[in-house]
Amino acid sequence: MSTRYIKKIYGSDVIPEKDDSASDTEISVTNDAKSKSFNVFDVLNQSSDNDEQDTSDKQDEDLDTNCVNCNDAKSRKKKKKRKKLENKKTKSQQHDVEYDEDEIERSVWEVNKLLGEPLPSCSNQVLEPQWVNQKSKEDILTIQHKHLNPYNELKRIFGSKTVQAERNKRRSRGRFGHLKKTWLVCPRDNWPPIGKSGLTMSLDYSVETTGNVQYFAYEHSTSYKQIQLKFLQAVESLNPENIIIAELCKLSEDLPMAAEFIERALYCLECAFHPSFNVTTAQCRLDYRKQQNRALFITLFKHLGFVGGRACYRTSLEFCKLLLSLDPEGDPLAVVLSIDFYALRAKEFEWFVEFCDLWESSRNLTQLPNIAYSLALAHFRLGNKDDADRLLQNALIMFPGVLIPLLEKCNIQTDAKVMQHDFFNSKAQTSTSPALEKLQNLYIVRSFHLWKETDILPWLEECVHAVLNRIESKDEYIKYCQVKRSKRYQGRLPKNILRHIILADMKEVIVNVQEIQNEGPVLSHDPLPPIDSIDIYKRPVANDRIAQNSSNFLSLFFSSLFTDIDGAAAALNGLNIFEENEDHAQ
């Protein structure tokens, strides 16, 4: 029998329940009234046993549902009120914005009423401040670290698997441990660690700086100076066995080994960089006059040549920019003579056009034959046909001696009208100075591959015939260029161009003795030092035994060339047999 019926029968005499019921009621309350506890006094008001209880339970459930519905309704009303308030706020904000726009339009209308309406063509143009998207000469020379790694470019050409397999072969040859990570070269595992080489770099406060430009200088320790003196003595001995090991490998046609030794030298120089020396900013400078700084210039020049020989033209372009940023005003190695070739080979046409625009005012780059022809070629690749035609015609008029040798180098036979015309033959030869001819030959030997493309030859022929028509019509620009060519490019080549030709080491373009006369010693590690060179090493005096050895091959060679110089003096002074003259470096 249930407890409800027992309570009806016995009333208050019912034995009270234990604490378990109380605990049950507490549990039921904590469980959100899922099971309701029975009230003793509700029995008095009940008229039936089951029905009334059921109805009361149903009423309680209805009350609960009604309460829930009421709560839901209240929450909905609150949400509606919030939405109404938010809508009112947004409407008020929109109204304020519209009001502000109306005020602005009203003020603009009043100004236009006073000053006049603007032209219709100006209304669609977006006016930007003058400083927006303007680059300086230094900004165009900034580089990225990823483009300094030739393996990244080789992966794009041959695929990552091929390049990685080749690198794994090299790694298996020998290991010396972990090497310092650098940006200019990728150190190989078979290289010995650098350690304390005695080569450091510090800030150079002897040169005045402007803006964010900083000058740096290499420093040699005492032990390093002793080794350097021994090296200079070996060079001055004129012994063929004492040739620099990289040059020795190059002479023996072992170009990969020569390139590796150049990379080692560059790795050693980079390990000595100052913490503030950042190669990517184009704000770091080195004074070429200081003897200890010239090693980085020459090593970078040789390295970009070897990298370009592996068809990594974009990497070579980045090294050209780096080399030019070290001394942009002096350009001691005349990087502008090769930067156009690597830019076009790397298909950086837009960059090259922008570079020429920024540097034209200060360097007159278009007065160089390589820049004049390459700039026209860059515009042609960009689709600027009118600018390309104008620039190529101007280049042909200013430097007519380029056309015939260029066609012969490309093995191209043109029509008889062009080959027999005096402007590109006899007049071009007589009006071209030896210095200008050297620059033209340097460009032809280096860049003739760019003109062998199938779409370039018809365009070149078209521009050549256009120039012939201008000659027949007696265009004044042709006479202007002829006078300009006769006044410029006279005399001997500047020192920086001579250094470029010596370091480029092209068999078809060489420097003769007359061109380097009185210019200084021609040594591969430091060719033609500037006349105002700041040396920390004095030229070592050769011993008397070498001076007395008149049978030395080089002494006999120089004595045969110059009758006023005896063999002993030639052996004593090595290759420095001329007096210093003024420095023609730009």
TrEMBL record:
Start-end of Acidic residues biased regions: 49-64
Entries under InterPro entries matching the protein: TCF25/Rqc1
Basic residues bias locations: 75-86
Chain segments carrying region Disordered: 44-100
Gene Ontology CC terms: RQC complex
Extent of Basic and acidic residues compositional bias: 87-97
Domain of life: Eukaryota
UniProt-recorded name of the protein: Transcription factor 25
Organism: Lasius niger (Black garden ant)
